[in-house]
Amino acid sequence: MFILGIESSCDETAASVVEASREGVLTVRSDVVASQVETHRLWGGVVPELAGRAHAEAISNVTRQALAEADVPLSALSCIAVTNRPGLIGALLVGVNFAKGLALSRGIPLVPVDHVHAHIAAASLLPDPPKPPYLAFAVSGGHTTLFRVDSPTDYTELGATRDDAAGEAFDKVGRVIGLPYPAGAAMDRLASEGDPAAFRFPSPAVPGRGFDLSFSGLKTAALNAVNSARQRGEEVSPADLAASFTAAAVGGLAERAREALRETGVRTVVLAGGVAANTHLRAAFETLCRESGARLCLPPPSLCGDNGAMAAAEGYFQFSAGVRADETLNACAN
Ligand code: KG4
Ligand code: ZN
pTM of the prediction? Predict the structure, then answer.
């Protein structure tokens, strides 16, 4: 069967066709992403109204291209999966209404998907997908949440950030040292050249908070280091700042995963979301899983950022569980 996945929750308009075999093996047949970062970069962050307009301009062509590259006609689709929560409301509504129109006009089943679960479903597109139960850490620009997953449709939240998401903190710290939005990838490269012990920053794994995290203390400490140096007429080394910030962020995420492995006895970890592309985070989770005797499932960087294939994969699981939406489907910001 073929699933069309449509994603427009933030600043990427994306569509993909995923093929599911009878045995449930998922294969990406096409994966088209139209990024709006150039538009938002001018403003230093995502401007919701511009995002909605750009999605409306791009969505038909992105979908047409995904179907053409997959060589799959609309009539061959078993369902259309669309991200309807959480995200920017004006951005989500574009994808939801487009998918609804397409599904209703062609009589194709419509399946709503959760964006955070879809990030984790990207791991099911790996040649050797994770088998439940597994721990799944979704680390993105909008979310930092640790789940226990007992089946692809059975998620239990173990912990989450109480304030900023990890990616948001990467972007804000990068901005103060002059990196363009989104700063995550540039921070990753800079961190490789700096001294992770140059600054002592607080861990986001604050003791006594269960599996929850807090990135605002770390972000504020990094911003203060830059600003107090400037008050003295000095500049911090951007590489040292990036390296020290990254070490604290990665250390806190790995610590929560280590505790969850210990407490649950689960032996597989999925790392997903835009920040899962971070080379230092990937290396830390590889070390952690090796030391803990756990298996690590890491989507390739192309499936970490927002994409349509992850929506299609999550849509496959929801469709298989009998989930369907009708013409009343709406979008939900959170
Ligand atoms: O998952 P995503 O594409 O969108 C959301 O659902 O939020 O994540 C985007 C976030 C941005 O904050 C971006 O800076 C961050 O992921 N990011 C990274 C890296 N690549 C993207 N953060 C750290 N290191 C990276 N290599
Ligand atoms: Zn995302």
Answer: 0.97
